[in-house]
Amino acid sequence: MLQSAPGRKKARMNAQDNSWIRRVMTVGSFADLKDELARTGAGLGFAHYSFRARYPNLRTGFNEICFDNCPNGWRRYYLKQGAGAESDPVRARAQQQTTPVLWRELMPQAPTLVRKAREFGFATGIIFPTHGPAGQWSALTLISLQGGVDTERAILDMMAEAHLLAVYVHDACARIIRRRLEGSVSVSQPAPDMALSRRERECLVLAARGKTAAEIGRSLEISERTVTFHLTNARRKLGTASSPHAVVRAVSLGLIAAG
Predict the structure, then answer these.
(1) Taking the model in full, what pTM does it have?
(2) What is the CATH architecture of 192-252?
């Protein structure tokens, strides 16, 4: 659960340890990914998680992904309500946007679902949509058992790290599926026109640490606008739609180091 004061400070310190990035990048099975997601989520201060995804560009058998560490009663209820169906509010929001969704934003759209979640002790949480090529999408929901103003502030404090976690988990699922279908994982090599400039790499490295454009600018002694320019160029070269996804792509290609 998200904690207040000293507990939140400790969780923040754990979040600054980026060793989880390499662990998520190298997991070889869904079982390992579930364990790592539970461990990293707990380090960020969340008691439970739920992951829903679809990879339509991958061959049959593993298009729909659904796993969590929530109580069985909640899982049965959610599945009975049509989790993953077009009417599922989490799925709908994940498909429509790329920015995080706070649970309080879901209340007008899905009041019954939110009230039922609270019956299971889920006080609040946040959903991180991620999009990939050819219609891929996923939604990582991180859940707190505590509510209130302090918890909402703690969620905002952890948002950058948690968003990066969602992107890495999305990429890890795709990699595990490819391994199952192909029998091995081939590591892509960067094409000549994908070469990043020194400044683009520096901006991506700092973005991987959860820094905002303004914070990156102060670290590199350049303007926030220049940071945005470099990150935009990096996304274009890497063929990604967001900076977190560009970080994942750059790490997987060996263009920047993880952690």
Answers:
(1) 0.66
(2) Orthogonal Bundle (1.10)
